[in-house]
Amino acid sequence: MAQFSMRIDDGVKERAEIACNALGITMSSAINLYLVKLGNEMRIPFEVSVDPFYNIENQKVLARSVKQLNDGHGTNHELIEVGE
Fold first, then answer.
1. Neighbour count for residue 17 (Cβ, 10 Å)
2. SS3 letters for the chain?
3. How confident is the model at residue 18, as a pLDDT?
4. What distance in Å separates the CA atoms of residue 6 and residue 38, rounded to the nearest whole number?
5. pLDDT average, residue stretch 42-50
6. For the domain that residue 50 is a member of, what is the CATH number?
7. Packed helices 27-41 and 10-23: angle between N→C axes, nearest 10 degrees
8. Does the residue 57 lie in any domain?
9. How many other β-carbons are positioned within 10 Å of the β-carbon of residue 31?
10. How many domains does the chain have?
11. Is residue 20 scored above 70 in pLDDT?
12. How far is CA 12 from CA 9, 17, 40, 66, in A?
């Protein structure tokens, strides 16, 4: 068997371990599943795309909005109760 070593962000590893534990598999098993599927299908076995939520302009708008709220310039909305 070959040995595989890689570096990943600590947070990514932690979240992946939580997911693996919930699925009842090891991280090694999960990576093996991915590599088998990659090799069999000759493609990345999931969609790879950029979520527009994380684009730079949107993050700037969100940061400004958070700053306004933290500075006390937000709008207070009353909760609307839905009747029966």
1. 13
2. CCCCCCCCCHHHHHHHHHHHHHHCCCHHHHHHHHHHHHHHHCCCCCCCCCCHHHCHHHHHHHHHHHHHHHCCCCCCCCCCCCCC
3. 95
4. 17
5. 90
6. 1.10.1220
7. 90
8. yes
9. 14
10. 1
11. yes
12. 5, 9, 26, 25
61 assigned to some structural domain: yes
- Is residue 80 included in any domain, yes or no? no
Give the structural domain span for 33: 10-70
Question: How far is residue 29's CA from residue 27's CA, in Å, rounded to a whole number?
Answer: 5
Asked whether residue 31 is domain-assigned, the answer is: yes
Residue 29 neighbours by CB under 8 Å, 6+ apart: 20
Q: Which amino acid is at 21?
A: N
